[in-house]
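Explain this protein:
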Amino acid sequence: MLHTPDAYEDDDLDRIPAPKPVHYAEQALLGALLLEPQRLAETGPLDAGHFENHSHAALFTAIRAVPPPDPDDHAKDTTWLNAVLEQARPHAPGLSASYIHALIQFCPQSKHAAAYTRLIRADHARRTLSRHAERLARTATDPTLPNPAASVLAQADALGRLLDDLAGQFAPHPGSLPRTPPLAAITHPSSEEELDEERLLLATATAYPAEVQQMRWLTAEDFTLPLHAALWQSVSALVHRGDMVDPVTVLGEAQHRGLLTDSLTPKDLMALVSTPAGSPEYWGERILQRALLARAHTVADRITAYTEDPANTPHQLITGSRRALADLNALRTRWNRATAPAPSPATRPQTHAAPAPRAGPPNRPAFTAARALR
């Protein structure tokens, strides 16, 4: 008895562990097209790039390239199938006549070609979204970029354009939000450089409080250390109330906010805010940029989690990813305000003199007492 090749069989094309559902959708669609080539019209904008399996993509390209046969002639011989195989083989040497016939036998219903097409396009959308999220995460952590914030925002824009394009391809439906459980918060230890930048901001903000009035774009959530965030709120509160600002008044505000403890003495706090270098805007932008990059990485992780959950439909992926991206765009708005060109001298309000906002400090002071507060 002759052995009939099985599309599930572990041949050169199927030597992959636990094929995903799209693998079988690709097989079913190709089988439908090989059996009834006229069904190609039902695949719409599908192209080879939508296929996950390279050999399947090559076979689909060949089906589109070889002129369709007369249906009656196709039912009587394999001339067209042989032509398709010869067209595809240079690009996928593993293809064989036995696999072609196995695909035809595997297809449950050739009239369901449009449904198989939708499954293939949906999985392609998932993979494409995952690649964009991966690029966003990689960009957010690339230390070699000359302008990391601009690079991250450019990747976010590309992701947004992809979501707009996908939204036009997949119809919305009830239950649009992903059911993927939220990711557990990941806390990374702060580096000494990050902590130094936050300390320098607090010291320069205390020395040049007038500059703080223009820094509403920086918030407590941008800081890596909760103590520094609380001290920034203390300095900001004094400035926005119009109170006098110096190390002693900051100490008083910190006391009222309950920040003084056995590990943070008044002397320690005074030392922390008493050694300025550079300008508040310079350090503020450094801190905000770091927060922007961290947010971008968090957004990328959320989108990746959505794409890795097979229960999510394309529309759920789109809706969830757009909401995640909105979190980054909220911080982008503050970044744009922080880095907007400074007003001309004729329109700039007179403030207490401070070093140039975006000029880095010539030297960093040693934070001997403050470092003990980490």
The CA atoms of residues 95 and 299 lie 41 Å apart. The two ends are 78 Å apart (CA to CA). The first helix runs from residue 21 to 35.
